[in-house]
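Usage example:
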Amino acid sequence: MPAQARRSQTVKVRDVAREAGVAVGTVSRVLNDHPTVTRELRERVERAMAHLGYEVDVTAQSMRAGRSRLVACAIRDFDIPRFALFIKEAEAVLREARYTLLLASTTNRPEVEIALLSAFRRRRVDGVMMTLSDEQHRDVREALSEAPMPVLLIDRNRIEALDRVTADHRQGARLATSHLLGLGHRRIAVLVGDTKAFPSRSRLEGLREAYAAAGVMPDPRLLRDNVLSSEEAYRATASLMSLADPPTALFVAAMDMLGGCLRALRTMGIAVGDGISVVAGSDSDLAELHTPPITAIAWDLAAMGRHAATMLLERMRGDEIERGRGLTVPTELIIRGSTRPVAN
Amino acid sequence: MPAQARRSQTVKVRDVAREAGVAVGTVSRVLNDHPTVTRELRERVERAMAHLGYEVDVTAQSMRAGRSRLVACAIRDFDIPRFALFIKEAEAVLREARYTLLLASTTNRPEVEIALLSAFRRRRVDGVMMTLSDEQHRDVREALSEAPMPVLLIDRNRIEALDRVTADHRQGARLATSHLLGLGHRRIAVLVGDTKAFPSRSRLEGLREAYAAAGVMPDPRLLRDNVLSSEEAYRATASLMSLADPPTALFVAAMDMLGGCLRALRTMGIAVGDGISVVAGSDSDLAELHTPPITAIAWDLAAMGRHAATMLLERMRGDEIERGRGLTVPTELIIRGSTRPVAN
DNA sequence: CCCCGCAAATGAACCGGTTCATTGACTCCC
DNA sequence: GGGAGTCAATGAACCGGTTCATTTGCGGGG
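Running the assembly step on the lines above writes:
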């Protein structure tokens, strides 16, 4: 069927109005559940719509209204297994409120974040939830402050004016570190991600607090930051375990990096538990079902997704709420067999 | 700032035209890289845009053009870790082509699939890639055939008119089953997902082919279908292993169900490898790093995502291509320590 | 010098809804 | 009976781009 023919065939409010013998304004009011329509006309219009197979053109509605019923989610990389849960729950909440989710990857680069914000504006997106590669980045902050729609930060907290949903990574890291120190470990290797971002900064804080509480000094040579991929985790672990005086414990304080570390340990023939104590920064089937099972920090990403969507919707509704609300989901340490007293 | 004030402040083509001293048509032609604009005017218009901070309104463009530069992806559940890879790669290809990805979950229900197709039409979405809960569902097929935009099926193949990207699950299942039969296993338990959908059907075909080639009859009492969640996998495994004559091998022929099975085996104190041979239907860190490592079927989901997006874009471009093109990515069996000769 | 042909530029009409000032009908009350 | 008040319904104007029939300008040929 030629596109043109199809095009001219589509049923419009005009056609519905003619069929029902009413004005276009009335059809529009029926469409939008406006209260000032008599039951009789409403029914006539609805019959006409059903009869003609009418479907509103959302692009026309968006153009007129200046909003799109779209909510964008931009994160650094959606190939983080547990993050899918966040998105899944957020989408469910948004769809329930008759919004559609728009998804984009920032690849953790400021210029992409800025370009996406601009694209979202041009699309008249109604709200945005996103991660940031660097909360201090001047141009990103400017783009955020100029954004006409509400923006909610995902696991970021440095921009006071914006709403945010975070996990209590500090607490998790503190628990994990205290646990290891309590088992007598003093040479604890730590892998963290991007220290410009909240989660890693926050974990480092928790780590330091635990050391301070124990009256012990951390060894900076055992810290590896900017570990953002499994391959980097592999290399970092390999290099740490090759030190003259290797660590007795490994704290993988980044999301979804456990696999890379375990691969390195296996390659080097080092046994988890006996050879080295391991704590995973995020829980997973792998951590739970490994032999031995791996002590891990856990938090509820599904709840984060739901809260993020809910808070953003509230903000979009324009309710008079104080700016920069923050919600923090707690973290817990699940102690399993991979962490053992240090051998003397 | 009041929305109304902001609203009236936005810069429009009209304003750019006035500033540059040209007609609105010219501004539009510059925006769309139309060739019949002299370099001088183009530059003047571009300067005016930069000066005024002009941003096109995509909703207006969409309304006029009847298309939105949106591509929708609707899958049954995005909380399938490996699927994130598909989406990630598809999004990258689409963004490269200046399309934005719209994401929705069908929760594997036909009525949701139909509702989403309708919502995509109303939004003038330019293309759709999706899974289907049941390719034979009458109403879904009708909704698909009435869709004005191209639809590409993800790992589904029963609708001849539609393009599709599939994995060769039959091959994977055949290899896995032959491998187990070759090790002497005759009591092989099998978990599959929804047999109304292509992947499970296809795996069952491969399974039967392998049995036929070996001249052995499968035991239907060892088959569990409709295993769609980890919890169901747990229960199915537990029930299979409680049989009077329990299986010697377990073929987890569904995506991402390995965790549930392993949990059940662990709870029952059955050792993978010695106690039972296990094959995973999809590869993962868990399969690779388990002790013993678990034999698994692997395929390239990233490539599937790239191909899906590329094929859909070609179709959207309206190129004269035969309808219903199919692309199949190969599967391979990665043999690891979890599959051993049957104990006699 | 004039006319033709071509290319560049113009701006009104259009896309398909929503909004709101206006009209029309009806009720209520004095 | 008539005027005020209420409420439903009307439809032209509008949202912000794009398109295309028309105009303008310019070079070249006769």
